[in-house]
């Protein structure tokens, strides 16, 4: 997991992200703009690469790559040190799907309830249910009016109230041992809306190959 400290218009916002390579973090494009524990590593960002078709209004294509400086670029550190506390997570194949009813998990440092005014000091994780697309109806005047089933996933059972919340944006929805989606947006109560990583696998992998030293 990556804790993102974002400066925007004189204010600080937090987001999540996750390592997909030693020098790349995948997160949400709307996190565009770094607490101490033994496992923490602080790494600067030299390039932010949001999806070129990211739409602020609809939040479509809400995905972004963050690149750490190359070894020759000061200041240090250069890239993440992979160890028992921090490692990369696998991305799905472009053809991979997650079935409705699958139980996955989401983690982050975001609020633990909708009325929470502070964020937790420790990383939180919760199991969440993958819902059918109909649970996020794209009614023009409803909270899911911008829901796009081709690039988004509807996640979080309203019966349990378990979902991500503010500050968790950009974190991974992990199913098995694979990051399948990215926390994106949603109303105060579940389900929430997550970006399907499979939709962006070809362009993400091409970008990683192009930018690797």
Can you walk me through this structure?
The protein has two domains: 2-88 and 200-211, Beta Barrel (Thrombin, subunit H), CATH 2.40.10.10; 103-198, Trypsin-like serine proteases (Thrombin, subunit H, Beta Barrel). The protein is mostly beta strands and 213 residues long. A hairpin with a 6-residue loop joins strand 10 (178-185) and strand 11. The mean pLDDT is 89. It starts with a strand and ends with a helix. It has one helix at 201-211; strands at residues 2-8, 11-21, 24-27, 47-50, 64-67, 103-108, 124-129, 152-155, 172-175, 178-185, 192-196. A six-stranded antiparallel β-sheet has the order 7-6-9-10-11-8, with no helix packed on it. It has a five-stranded antiparallel β-sheet with strand order 1-2-3-5-4, with no helix packed on it. The longest helix is centred in the last third of the chain and has 11 residues, at 201-211.
Quick recap of the structure?
This protein is mainly beta and 213 residues long. Helix content is 5%, strand content 30%. The strands form 2 sheets. The chain has a 6-stranded antiparallel sheet with strand order 7-6-9-10-11-8, with no helix packed on it. It has a 5-stranded antiparallel sheet with strand order 1-2-3-5-4, with no helix packed on it.
């Amino acid at each position: 997991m990556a804790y993102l400290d974002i400066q925007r218009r004189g204010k600080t916002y937090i987001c999540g992200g996750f390592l997909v390579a030693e020098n790349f973090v995948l997160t949400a494009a709307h996190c565009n703009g770094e607490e101490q524990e033994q496992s923490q590593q602080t790494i600067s960002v030299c390039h932010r690469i949001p999806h070129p078709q990211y739409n602020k209004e609809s939040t479509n294509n809400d995905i972004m790559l963050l690149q750490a400086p190359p070894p020759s670029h000061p200041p240090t550190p250069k890239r993440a040190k992979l160890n028992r506390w921090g490692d990369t997570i696998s991305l799905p194949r472009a053809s991979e799907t997650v079935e409705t009813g699958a139980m996955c998990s989401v983690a982050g440092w975001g609020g633990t309830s909708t009325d929470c005014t502070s964020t937790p000091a420790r990383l939180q994780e919760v199991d969440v249910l993958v819902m059918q697309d109909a649970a996020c109806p794209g009614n023009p005047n409803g909270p899911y009016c911008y829901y796009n089933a081709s690039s988004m996933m509807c996640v979080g059972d309203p019966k349990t109230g378990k979902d991500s919340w503010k500050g968790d944006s950009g974190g991974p929805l992990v199913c098995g041992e694979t990051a399948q989606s990215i926390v994106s947006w949603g109303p105060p109560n579940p389900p929430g809306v997550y970006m399907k990583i499979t939709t962006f696998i070809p362009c993400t992998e091409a970008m990683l190959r192009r930018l690797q030293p």
